[in-house]
Amino acid sequence: MSNEPVIAIVGVTGAVGAEFIATMDKRRFPVGRLKALASARSAGKTIGFRGQPIVIEELTEQAFSGVDIALFSAGGGISRKFAPIAVKAGAVVVDNSSAFRMDPDVPLVIPEINARRIREHKGIIANPNCAAITALVPLWPIHQQNRIKRLILSTYQAASGAGAAAMEELVASTRASLNGVVFTPKVMPHPYAFNLFNHNTAVDPETGYNDEETKVIKETRKIFEDERIAVGVTCVRVPVLRAHCVSITFECEHPIREHEVREILSSSPGVKIVDDRAKNYFPMPIDASGQDDVLVGRIRRDLSDPTGHSISIFTAADQLLKGAALNAIQIAELLPQRVMA
Question: What's the mean pLDDT in 175-183?
Fold first, then answer.
């Protein structure tokens, strides 16, 4: 009998579900048995895992019997209903939705930043917002040495953030546009081909901020454990298949120079500097796709701040990997040995 953990993937047929499987395989994550869970319409189909066909099971309240770790990526509603059931059955849940992120009893974890919080879990550990991860991984090591007191972020978020259906719609609408065919969007609220628009989450009529922006603000403060940090953010959906980008200007408590930022980031975990001014080569979604690291470039002094306290950078990261599946697997790898035994 294998001593390796029984793993359940909730939402196995989605874009992140597929990356869960690929990432576990790539990182040789120990799996005694895999339970592939999805809706009733997918039950009975098979997926491949390590050379073996795995029959997809319907997600039910009984599906978590014997499960050690449950990886969720099926939306907030599913997580709110089934994550507590999985915990009651004895599993540790790593949830990719926003359902539990701001719950004070649920650790919100980026392993490069606050892995120590994993041991405080009470059954559920939350994966942060993908745009927040893309920004915060490189900002954290800077924040540790020279506190960041203010952030201005603008995101360029790919279709992958809205799931496989959105990615398919981008491809289909682009093909239709190139062929002069009228395409009616079904997943996105606006035409996606050769267009960009405000992130497709609800806008608060009072503040004018969409839900994605509010998530980034709140999650930044929780992960950095700093309620004083000022965050301004604009989240935009762009016609890119996968990998989010974020334009960042940060203001530190003390003066900071470009060379200091480069030096800090050159040895920071999960970060790769891509910053070639001579060749005009900086982080791009096409390069970030399939990469584990957050790419960082455009490192330069913020000329609007004569005090020398501010720096601007540009980041790119694969939303399906570091922004979702990879971050969750990294969390699972750090779970106490009694879970992994």
Answer: 97
How many degrees, rounded to 5, is the angle at CA 138 between CA 135 and CA 140? 95
Average of per-residue pLDDT across 255-277 = 98
Active site residue ranges: 130, 244
- Contact by Cβ (8 Å): 235, 199: yes
Q: pLDDT tens for residues 128-139?
A: 999 999 999 999
d(CA 172, CA 203): 27
Please report, for residues 39, 49, 64, 180, 207, the alpha-carbon distance to residue 319 in angstroms, rounded to integers and kept in the order given: 23, 22, 27, 31, 27
Give the H or E element holding residue 338.
helix 337-340
Structure tokens at 337: 């040995």
Distance CA 312, CA 292 (A): 23
Contact 216, 229 (CB under 8 A): no
Longest dimension (CA), the chain: 66
- Per-residue burial over 38-65, b if 16 or more Cβ lie within 10 Å, else e, is beeebeeeebebeeeebebbebeeebbe
The DSSP annotation for 149-201 comes to EEEEEEEEE-GGGG-HHHHHHHHHHHHHHHTT-----SSSSS--TT--EE-SS
Which pTM was predicted?
0.95
DSSP strand pairing (52-58 vs 92-95): unpaired
Distances (CA, A) of 315 to 77, 82, 130, 230, 252: 30, 34, 12, 20, 18
Give the number of residues written for the chain. Answer: 341
pLDDT in tens, 180-219: 999 999 999 999 999 999 999 999 999 999 999 999 999 9
